[in-house]
Automatic annotation (TrEMBL):
Source superkingdom: Bacteria
Keyword annotations of the record: Aminopeptidase, Hydrolase, Manganese, Protease
Family according to the record: Belongs to the peptidase M17 family.
Gene3D superfamilies reported for this sequence: Leucine Aminopeptidase, subunit E, domain 1, Zn peptidases
GO cellular component terms given for this protein: cytoplasm
Record-listed E.C. numbers: 3.4.11.1
GO BP field: proteolysis
Domain Cytosol aminopeptidase: 308-315
Species of provenance: Profundibacterium mesophilum KAUST100406-0324
Gene Ontology MF, one: manganese ion binding
Broadest EC class assigned to this enzyme: hydrolase
Name the record gives this protein: Leucyl aminopeptidase
Highest classification ranks of the organism: Bacteria, Pseudomonadati, Pseudomonadota, Alphaproteobacteria, Rhodobacterales
Length: 461
């Protein structure tokens, strides 16, 4: 993969990113041969359009990339990423003098466009490379791209090669690379360590359930990331239809995203103490599978009535969140591919998040905009609390009726996060349904860049 910028060189060829209103003034300053060439190719600076400009000897000497009209610019993400695959081999540089926002998005999009998932079939990579745009932090963008690539690789790997064992191995490899500590609780040991919900969800699989616990850093505020690691979700005894199982390798997208985010944090050596908790399970069907109607204990002591075994993600997260709360971290974040309701509400691009902390919400929203990582706050709507209280047990894992599914799931998790000063939950999709610039079809990280960007403000780093 090509996830790094080229070193600075005086021979780098310029890329000019122009909107329709900028094209004529730019052309007016160019030689006649350039004006004629651009006009002959019908380049109008439409969004994503690209034209190579040849030198008098016929070799490429520059490229123009269209930004589209300013009024429609928000419709297209990572415009430069779209052009990367069409540029010929060589070192290029961004010559446009646009603001920091566009330069940053262009830098990120360029690197993300270098990602390919090539584990099972040969992949072709872009031949063009680019120097880091002026004013951009090269280390930041390269570490972000590497973390995103890790997330995508983990999600894209099918479940036969990415079960709880393999997810543990991926976490251990990351821990070893950055000198982090690892502790793993497997199988019946989960019951001995009072993690009964994780055990209940994963016990039907031939692949033992586990809790992966990684720690890094010795000074600074404490941050705990909890990621849902359901390596495949059949739905359990409430079996999913076949069409709904097709993308269930991505149901560990929360785990993949927190591991990618952890890589970003450790690569940038942020001054904090990081803990990553991943309940890694496979929700399968066998004689000892948990059942609809069961009432299960949790680490926190709350009882949970099971009304749908396909609402398993909140169960494994509940025990992990309860464990995290016991050390009272300064910031607790859970990430999960949790509800279809979140997709219906916001679609595949935007990751909803929930928090009661106003400064945290503002920081996440701002960092999401700055990092080209769109997020949107949804409410912990307390009048819906009775919907998760079945009467026969403390909590209901799947309220009937279908209303506000993302909110009721978040309210369920908040019950286990009580006692931490700052908590946010992200209900991500983790999947790009069709190819787009910088985002090939398949696994994708969501929310990680927003969280990374918010950490300095939130924690005073």
């Amino acid at each position: 993969m090509s996830l790094k910028f080229a070193d600075e060189t005086p021979d780098a060829l310029p890329i000019h990113m122009l909107g329709p209103d900028e094209l004529a003034p730019w052309l007016a300053q160019q030689p006649e041969r350039v004006r004629s060439w651009v006009e002959a190719n019908g380049f109008s600076a439409a969004s994503g359009a690209m034209v190579l400009i040849p030198s008098e000897e016929g070799r490429p000497e520059a490229a123009l990339v269209g930004l589209g009209p300013a009024s429609r610019r928000g419709r297209d993400r990572f415009v430069l990423a779209q052009a990367r695959a069409s540029l010929p081999e060589g070192v290029w540089r961004l010559a446009s003098r646009h603001g920091a926002q566009l330069r940053g998005e262009s830098a990120l999009g360029w690197l993300l466009a270098g990602y390919r998932f090539g584990r099972y079939a040969e992949a072709s990579f872009p031949k063009a490379s680019m120097t880091c745009p002026q004013g951009c932090d090269r280390t930041h963008f390269e570490t972000v791209a590497a973390g995103e690539a890790l997330t995508r690789d983990l999600i894209n790997t099918p479940s036969n090669d990415m079960g709880p064992d393999e997810l543990e191995a991926a976490a251990r490899a990351l821990a070893d690379a950055f000198g982090a500590d690892m502790d793993v609780t497997r199988g019946d040991e989960l019951l001995e360590r009072n993690l009964p919900l994780i055990h209940a969800v994963g016990r039907a699989s031939s692949r033992a359930p586990r809790l992966i616990d990684m720690s890094w850093g010795e000074t600074g505020p404490t941050v705990v990331l909890v990621g849902k690691g359901v390596c495949f979700d059949t739905g359990g005894l409430n079996l999913k239809p076949g069409a709904s199982m097709g993308t269930m390798k991505k149901d560990m997208g929360g785990a993949a995203t927190v591991l990618g985010l952890a890589r970003m944090i450790m690569s940038q050596t942020l001054r904090l103490r990081l803990r990553v908790l991943i309940p890694a399970v496979e929700n399968s069907v066998s004689g000892n599978a948990f059942r609809p109607g069961d009432i299960l204990p949790s680490r926190k002591g709350l009882s949970v009535e099971i009304n749908n075994t396909d609402a398993e993600g909140r169960l494994v997260l509940a025990d992990a969140i309860a464990l995290a709360v016991e050390e009272t971290p300064d910031l607790l974040i859970s990430m999960a591919t949790l509800t279809g309701a979140a997709r219906v509400a916001l679609g595949p691009d935007i990751a909803p998040f929930f928090t009661d902390d106003e400064p945290l919400a503002e920081a996440l929203s701002a960092a999401g905009r700055d990092g080209a990582d769109p997020v949107w706050r949804l409410p912990f709507w307390e009048p819906y609390e009775p919907m998760i209280e079945p009467g026969i047990a403390d909590l209901d894992n799947a309220p009937k009726g279908g209303f506000a599914g993302a909110i009721t799931a978040a309210l369920f998790l908040r019950r286990f996060a009580e006692g931490v000063p700052r908590y946010a939950h992200f209900d991500i999709y983790g999947w790009q349904p069709s190819a787009a610039p910088g985002r090939p079809k398949g696994g994708v990280g969501q929310g990680a860049r927003a969280i990374l960007g918010a950490l300095p403000d939130v924690l005073g780093l």
